[in-house]
């Protein structure tokens, strides 16, 4: 994952906190990391949906799990090898 980080860039990572290992790897590539906590409301979610629909922002789905595979999904998230979102189909 870290090999794919570009150099001389800014990175915004939502929700997941940076640990010291992650920060050190960013610093080695001359990347500035920011942690942003969000508290979504209906207006914000609608604005994000509009941006997604317009193609102005994109999301990356790392892996899709069936709901019955929720334990595997949780393990995947905790492995810290997830890049993007995990989707659980209900």
Describe this entry's structure for a reader.
The protein has 2 domains: 1-58, no CATH class; 59-90, no CATH class. It contains 3 helices and 4 strands; from the N terminus they run E-H-E-H-E-H-E. The two termini are 29 Å apart. The longest helix has 12 residues, at 42-53. It is of the alpha/beta class.
The neighbouring-strand order within the major sheet is 1-2
Work out the count of structural domains.
Answer: 2
List the secondary-structure elements in sequence, H or E: EHEHEHE
Residue fraction in strands:
25-35%
Number of strands: 4
Query: Can you tell me the residue ranges where pLDDT is under 50 for at least 5 consecutive residues?
Result: none
Cα-atom Rg, whole angstroms? 15 Å
Per the principal axes of the C-alpha atoms, what is the gross shape?
A: extended
Q: Which structural class fits the helix and strand makeup?
A: alpha/beta
Helix content: 25-40%
What's the overall average pLDDT, rounded?
Answer: 78
Distance between the termini: 29 Å
List the topology elements.
Layout: E1 9-14, H1 20-28, E2 31-36, H2 42-53, E3 61-66, H3 70-78, E4 85-89
Parallel strand pairs: 1-2, 3-4
Short précis:
This protein has 90 residues and is α/β, with parallel strands linked by helices.
């Amino acid at each position: 994952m870290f090999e794919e980080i570009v150099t001389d860039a800014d990175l915004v990572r939502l929700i997941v906190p940076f640990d010291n290992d992650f920060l050190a790897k960013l610093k080695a590539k001359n990347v500035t990391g920011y942690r942003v906590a969000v508290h979504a409301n209906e207006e914000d979610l609608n604005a994000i949906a509009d941006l997604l629909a317009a193609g102005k922002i994109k999301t990356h789905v790392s892996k899709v799990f069936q709901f019955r595979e929720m334990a595997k999904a949780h393990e995947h998230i905790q492995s810290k090898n997830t890049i993007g979102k995990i989707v659980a189909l209900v």
